[in-house]
């Protein structure tokens, strides 16, 4: 029996590496002769760089940058051994995990540090920059990143400033004459949400409350994103309304302004992992992440895994800490969707890394014994 364990991290609990290892141990406990292929994955958010490094010939590099509140930090990303391609994630410089809970206010945060990372890659002569844009603490439409790339953001008094989500409406002009084009590097943004830049389903209203915004602040952020879209003139109105431009607090929009191509982070990760060659003779795929629900159907990693496996007629079982909308997920094609947690466990207990690893192992073992 050949089984593929293809997991994203269970955020705040176990890494993708830990998840696949726990599942592997559970499978072998139930079926010692099984062949288990472990594929730790990511979808463009936190952990993407580490996951990509596992499948490619890369090396880690460091650069000086700033966090979402403009505090100096040392950021890490990866460069291919031939020096041509940089792999990075915006969360390294502008991620929610960089902030304490009381610091999480997207009106105050910026993507400036992301632009600094990209500039560093350009200085190292990288011809391609692949950037995962999940896990953001920001909602500035990528304006902070643009400022770090030399774009002059000018307020109503004619002064240059570094925008945050809450100051986008203060922008009076955007001067591209000093923009650094990153040496003409190709930019690929890996994202897996289809939200537009603004509006009821946009970056602010859907995601800003999860980043700490109040109701009034969410409205302020949405108005700021509308203003940013109106004041720039590099995209048509139709382009501005494209799905996915709301990813990472609108960072996808800023990246589009500088010519980036948007790709599915999950699909990119699956390509790099080589999952297709493993699927050719696989009997079963186990996949999952911390929470699985109807949003999973919108291109998140477990759904991307399901699509790949279905093309090879390989059944897929999803395991998660939290499961909702199971009937919808089953209709989408999963053979089974299970929570790894006992019904009486508290969320706090379930999130403990040792507990989560043990529950993953037990769930995998129980599943294989029944098959």
In short:
37% of the residues lie in helices and 22% in strands.
What is the CA–CA distance across the termini? Answer: 11 Å
The second-level CATH architecture of the largest domain is: Alpha-Beta Complex
Shape: globular
Return the CATH topology of the largest domain. Glycerate kinase, domain 2
Radius of gyration: 21 Å
Number of domains: 2
**What is the string of SSEs from the N terminus onward?**
EHEHEEEHHEHEEEHHHHEHHEHEHEHH
Tell me the major beta sheet. 6 strands, mixed
Which strands sit side by side, in order, in the main sheet? 3-4-5-6-9-10
CATH level-four homologous superfamily name of the largest domain: Glycerate kinase, domain 2
SS content category: alpha/beta
Low-pLDDT residue intervals, each spanning 5 or more residues? none
Quickly list its features.
371 residues; alpha/beta; Rossmann fold; Glycerate kinase, domain 2; 2 domains; six-stranded mixed β-sheet; five-stranded parallel β-sheet; 13 strands; 37% helix; 22% strand; globular
Can you tell me about this structure?
With 371 residues, the chain is α/β, with parallel strands linked by helices. The chain folds into two domains: 2-39 and 274-370, 3-Layer(aba) Sandwich (Rossmann fold), CATH 3.40.50.10350; 48-265, Glycerate kinase, domain 2 (Alpha-Beta Complex), CATH 3.90.1510.10. Helices cover 37% and strands 22% of the residues. The protein is built from 15 helices and 13 strands. It has a six-stranded mixed β-sheet with strand order 3-4-5-6-9-10, with helices on both faces. The chain has a five-stranded parallel β-sheet with strand order 2-1-11-12-13, with helices on both faces. Strand 4 (72-80) and strand 5 (85-89) form a beta hairpin. Helix 1 runs parallel beside helix 15 (353-370). The radius of gyration is 21 Å and the shape is globular.
């Amino acid at each position: 029996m050949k089984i593929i364990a293809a997991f994203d991290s269970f955020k705040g609990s176990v890494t993708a590496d830990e998840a696949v290892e726990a599942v592997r141990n559970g499978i072998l406990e139930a079926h010692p002769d099984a062949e288990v292929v472990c594929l730790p994955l990511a979808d463009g958010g936190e952990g993407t760089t580490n996951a990509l490094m596992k499948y490619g010939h890369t090396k880690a590099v460091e650069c000086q940058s700033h966090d979402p509140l403009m505090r100096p930090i040392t950021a890490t990303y990866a460069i291919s051994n031939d020096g041509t391609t940089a792999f990075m994630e915006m969360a390294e410089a502008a991620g929610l995990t960089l902030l304490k809970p009381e610091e999480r206010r997207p009106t105050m945060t910026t993507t400036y540090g992301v632009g600094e990372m990209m500039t560093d890659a350009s200085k190292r002569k990288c011809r391609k920059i692949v950037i995962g844009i999940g896990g953001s603490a920001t909602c500035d439409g990528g304006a902070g990143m643009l400022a770090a790339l030399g774009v002059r953001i000018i307020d109503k008094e004619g002064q240059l400033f570094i925008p945050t989500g809450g100051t986008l409406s203060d922008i009076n002009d955007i001067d591209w004459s000093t923009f650094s084009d990153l040496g003409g590097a190709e930019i690929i943004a890996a994202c897996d949400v289809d939200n537009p830049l603004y509006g009821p389903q946009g970056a602010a209203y859907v995601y800003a409350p999860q980043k700490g915004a109040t109701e009034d602040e969410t409205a302020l952020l949405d108005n700021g994103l509308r203003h940013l879209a109106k004041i720039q003139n590099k995209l048509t109105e139709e382009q501005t309304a494209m799905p996915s431009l709301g990813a990472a607090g609108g960072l996808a929009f800023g990246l589009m302004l500088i010519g980036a191509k948007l790709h599915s982070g999950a699909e990119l990760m699956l390509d790099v992992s080589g999952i297709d060659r493993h699927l050719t003779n696989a009997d079963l795929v186990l996949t999952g992440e911390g929470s699985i629900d109807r949003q999973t159907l919108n291109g998140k990693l477990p759904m991307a895994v399901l699509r790949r496996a279905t093309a090879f007629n390989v059944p897929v079982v999803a395991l998660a800490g939290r499961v909702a909308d199971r009937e919808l997920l089953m209709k989408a094609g999963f053979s089974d969707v299970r929570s790894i947690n006992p019904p009486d466990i508290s969320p706090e207990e379930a999130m403990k890394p040792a507990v989560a690893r043990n529950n993953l192992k037990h769930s995998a073992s129980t599943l294989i014994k029944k098959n």
